[in-house]
Write a structure and sequence with these properties.
mainly alpha; 6 helices; about 75% helix; about 0% strand; transmembrane helix; DoxX family protein
């Protein structure tokens, strides 16, 4: 018995519209949340920041500002490479970085007895995992030709 395979059988499946919309929505949400958090940690005076996030008053200014830069880089990295299609593979790496950051943030807050503040970290973790999975396997963005 001979089987024939047409070229259309070998073409990759196009991701569904819902998946593509979901990924762009998740990327935009991560961009906004990480961007806001990063800018807040970078530019808010530590005394004011410590009223919103008590841990920031207990660590060095350099540490807090570095976390702000990491947040901002994650937010920019999750969206801009895909949006511009310039090195879009960086979106996958940014998503991996955001996943790692959220895992450490959850452990940090739980170790300090601040589990009550982790729901946002869990949401960001889930969104980052979704983008990591989606942009890596199901709906990668192709670079500009």
């Amino acid at each position: 018995m001979s089987s024939t395979t047409s070229t259309s059988d070998l073409a990759p499946l196009r991701p569904s519209r819902a998946l593509r919309i979901g990924l762009w929505t998740a990327q935009t949400m991560i961009f906004l949340l990480f961007g806001f958090a990063g800018l807040t940690k970078l530019f808010t005076p530590i005394k004011e920041l410590a009223q919103m996030m008590p841990w920031t008053g207990e660590y060095s200014v350099a540490f807090v500002r570095t976390i702000g830069l990491i947040d901002l880089a994650g937010g920019l990295g999750i969206l801009l490479p895909s949006l511009t299609r310039i090195m879009p593979r960086l979106t996958v790496l940014a998503a991996l970085g955001c996943v790692t950051l959220q895992v450490f943030a959850i452990m940090f807050h739980v170790s300090r007895g601040e589990a009550v503040v982790t729901p946002l970290n869990l949401v960001l973790l889930a969104l980052s995992l979704f983008v990591l999975w989606g942009r890596n396997t199901k709906a990668p963005i192709l670079p500009r030709s």
